[in-house]
Every structure is written in C-alpha cells, then in structure tokens.
Amino acid sequence: MRGTTRTDAGVRAIDDAGIEPAIADPDQPGTVLDLVGDVALVIWLMGSAEGEGVGAIHGERLESLLAKLVDTPVRGFAYEGTEGGAAIVERAAATWSIPVAIIGGEPRAAEILALLG
Fold first, then answer.
1. CA gap 94, 99 in Å, rounded
2. pTM to 2 decimals?
3. What is the pLDDT of residues 36-55, one digit of tens each?
4. With CB atoms 3.0 to 4.6 Å apart as the test, which of 10, 20, 73, 88 could cross-link to 2 if both were Cys?
5. Phi, psi of 25 (to 5 degrees)
6. Residue 51, strand partner residues
7. Higher-confidence residue: 68 or 49?
8. Which residues face 88 on adjacent strands?
9. In DSSP terms, which residues pair with 77 in a beta bridge?
C-alpha cells in the first residue's frame, strides 16, 4: 500500500502509519501517474481538500488522470470528493469500464474492497 502527500510532514505521518509514503500533487496528474506502475486500486480521498485550485482537482485534473489510468495496471478507482467529480468518475466508468466506488462521508472499507472483488 502506498499513500501520497504533497508535504514532508505528510510523508512522516504516512510512514508512521506503516504505509509506503510518496510525494505526489493531485494538481499535477503526472506525479500521480508516475506512482501507479504496480498499483491495482487508486483511492482518491480529496473530499476535505481546500484552497486555491481544488476545483481543478475535482474537474479537469481528475478527468485527465482517469483518461490516462486506462493505460496503466490500475483496475479500480474509489473517489471521495464533489458531486461534479463523482459525475466525471461515473462517466469514466461507463466509457472505459473502470470499476469505481463513489465514497460519501467517511470512507467505507467495504465500498473500496468491493472494487477488488
């Protein structure tokens, strides 16, 4: 399991939790794509993200990421975010037959694990 963050403090927190940490920026989909060569499931927990540029992370950046994930080993995508982002994820699922889970509120492990089915 690998967890991503944009900060050194986040790297330490992820490592302390026993998860392999990596630096990636959701505003730059290429930094995420560089890390998915051995990943089957991406869990995009961005529902509480705030600040400048968040709209793009749930919009065109998310759309770009999903389009490029098709050519990777990723076989499932769980999304926590906005209604607009959820619509993008659902369109990607219909277009490319990507198994997805839309997570509302607190992430629920059953919804995420169902993707691995």
1. 9
2. 0.83
3. 999 999 999 887 777 888 88
4. 20
5. -120, 115
6. none
7. 68
8. none
9. 42, 100
